[in-house]
Amino acid sequence: MSELLKALKSLPQKPKKVHTVTIEGQSLVVSLERKLEVMKHGEDAYMWKSPTDIVLKPKRKPRAKYPVLRTAKKGFSFEQGDIHWPNGVVENGEAWLIEYE
Q1: Is 33 within the bounds of a domain?
Q2: Is there a domain that residue 49 lies in?
Q3: How many CA atoms lie within 13 A of 22 on its CB side?
Q4: Residue pair 79/87 in contact by the 8 Å Cβ criterion
Q5: What pLDDT sits at residue 28?
Q6: β 94-98/26-30 pair status
Q7: Residue-wise pLDDT tens digits, 81-101
Q8: Smallest Cα–Cα separation from 76: which of 63, 59, 88?
Q9: pLDDT value at position 101?
Q10: Distance CA 66, CA 77 (A)
Q11: Which residue segment(s) compose the domain that 31 sits in?
Q12: Is residue 54 located within the same domain as residue 76?
C-alpha cells in the first residue's frame, strides 16, 4: 500500500492554469472570476486605472433629441388639429422643430 502512495506522490503535478486578459495591448494576470467578468463585458469595455488595475470604461449616456411640434413663422395647418392631415403651409403655423438643450 505504501508503494502505491509513493507512486501517487511521484506523479507530476499539473501546472495551475493562468488567466490573462489583454487590455489596450497589455496583458494582465487575473483571477478566474475577473477573467469571466472581462469576457462578459468584452475587453474593449475596460481601461487601465493603474499599471496593475483595470476598470470598466464609463458608459456614455444616450442623448436622443426628438422633434417637437411648435409654432413657427412658416408651418403647417392641420385638418381638425390632426397632425396626420396637413392642409398646407401657412404663416404662423406649426412645424416639427428639434429643441437643443
Answers
A1: yes
A2: yes
A3: 1
A4: yes
A5: 92
A6: unpaired
A7: 888 888 889 999 888 888 765
A8: 88
A9: 58
A10: 21
A11: 17-59
A12: no
DSSP label at residue 44: G
CA 3 to chain centre: 58
- The answer to whether the CB of 92 falls within 8 A of the CB of 73 is yes
Same domain (yes/no): 47, 23: yes
Q: Extract the C-alpha cell encoding 8.
A: 501517487
**pLDDT recorded at residue 32:** 94
- 55 shares a domain with 72: no
Residues 21-78: tens digit of each pLDDT: 999 999 999 999 999 999 999 999 999 999 889 999 998 887 778 888 888 899 998 8
Give one DSSP letter per residue of 10-22, joined into a string.
HSPPPPPPPEEEE
Query: Do 23 and 50 share a domain, yes or no?
Result: yes
The tally of domains found in the chain comes to 2
- Give a yes or no: residue 5 inside a domain: no
0.70 surpassed by pTM? no
Any idea which residue has 507530476 for its cell? 12
- Do 25 and 50 fall into the same domain? yes
Domain assignment present for residue 86? The answer is yes
